[in-house]
Amino acid sequence: MVKFRKYISGITVLASGLFLAQSTVSTVLFTPTYDSQKPNLSLPSPVAAIEKTILSPKELLDVNLNTMMTDPVLKNASWGFVVFDPKTKKIISSYNENMPLVPASTTKLLTTETALNLLGENYRWMTQLEYSGQIDENGVLNGNLYIVGSGDPSLGTNKAGALSYREIITDFMSGLTREGIKKVNGDIIIQTALFKGNISRLPENVVWLENNNYYLPVGTTREINPANEKLIVKKNTLSADKKFFYVSPYANQMVYAEKYDGNGTLTTKLPDAPAYLANSFRTTLVKSGIAVTGKVTPKMTDAEPESRKLVSAYKSPTLTDIVYYTNQHSDNSLAEALLRTVGFFRKGDQTSESGKVVVKDHLKDVAFDAEGLNYMDGSGLSRSNTVTPIAQVKYLTSLMNQKYYQTYLTSLPIGGQSGTLKRMFNEAGNGQVFAKTGTLNKVKTLAGYIKTNSGRTLVFSLLVNNYAGSVDMVKKRMEKILEPTLEL
User: Which Gene3D superfamilies match (predicted)?
Assistant: First the structure.
C-alpha cells in the first residue's frame, strides 16, 4: 500500500516558497492583452516541476496513485494496481493489490499460457481428406470421401495465417487429381469426435456481444438466472439463416441466436467448420465435373471404421501463431476453442467444463495464488470471473523462466504499436508496454510487462471496475498511473 505523508510537507514548503515568485511572474506574463495574443501559451506548473525534481520515480508513482484515489473517474470505482520487480520478487508500489476484481480479457493470459504449456509452441490441428473403397479403371471411386477434423479453431477463417475454405478445397481437389478420381460413387462423410457437444450451459453472468464483432457465446440460456440475464426476444427478418435476436443486458446491442425455445430461452452454437468445408467441397466437385452420387453426412463415431487412404492433409497455423492472434486481437472464439482443446488433450472431453478443470489444475501446478480467483470461461466474457492484481503479477513473473516465455511475450500487444494497445501509450510508454487488455461495460483492465528506460523489466496489473465516465477517460488515467514506472 502506498504511503504519502512524508512527501507532502516538503512539496508544501517548496510550493509556498515559490508563491511570491509565481505571483510576480504572472503579472508580467499573463496580462489580458498578452493572453489574448497567445491563446495557446502553456507554461509548466511550478509545483509539478518541483515534484519531478525532488521526488524519485517510485515516489511520483505513489503520488499519482494518491491523486487517482480522488479522481472523479476512479474515486467511486473498485480498482487495484501493483507493479512488481521480478528479480527481487518484491512489490514496488501497489493499491488494493489483494482485491478480487473482474479481469475481462486479461483472463486470456491464463488460457493461452496453459495451451502453450500443455500443447507446445508447434502444436497444429490437422484436417485430412481420405477415401475408402477402390478406384476403377475409369476413375470412379466406389467408396466414400472422408473429411476428418480435429477441432481446428482457425479452419477457413484466414485468422493467424490460416487458409480460406477455397484454398483448402483447392488442395483437396489437387489430391483427387493425383489419385485419378473422376467420380465419387458414395458419400462425403464428416468425421470428428471433437467439439461435438456444442450446446452446453453458459458461464454465469456472461456478457453478450454482437454477432461477428467479438464472440457469440455457445450454449443455452436455459439455466441462466433471469434476474441477471433479461432477454428480449424478437423475430429478425433481416437474415434468412438467423431468425431470432435478443438485446444484451450489458452491452445494449442486438445479438443473434439460431434457436428460440420459448420462455425467454435461446440457444446458440459454434459454426460447424468441417460441415461448411464438406458442403463447399461437394459443390466444387460437382461444378468441376466430378459427380458425387451420395450426400454430405456427419459421423461422430465409427464402431467399424472402413480402411481408408490419405489423400491430402491440411495443417493449421502453429499454436504460436494462434496464441499471437488471440492475444493481439483479443479473439474470444479462439480463446474458447483453446480452452476446449486443452480439455480434450488432458481429459479426452471437448467441453468447456473439462477445459476449465484443466486450466485450474495447471494453475495449481504452477503455484498460482488462487485467493480471489474465479475462472468461469476461457475468454473473459463472464462478469463472474475474478482475480487479484497480485496474483496476476506473480503468475506473469513465474512465466519469465519458461522456455516459451519469448513466444508468450511476443503475443502481447505493444503500447502505441500493435494489437489492442495500438491507440494507448502513443507518447510515454510507446514500445515499452507489453500487455493484455480487457474491456467490458465499465470494466477496463491491463496486465503484462514494462521495459523501463533503464532497461529493467517490471511486471504490472491494473484492473478497474465500475469507473465513471467513458472508456477513453479511464484509459488516460491508466496511462497516467503507469508513466512514472518507465523511470524506475
Answer: D-Ala-D-Ala carboxypeptidase C, peptidase S13, DD-peptidase/beta-lactamase superfamily
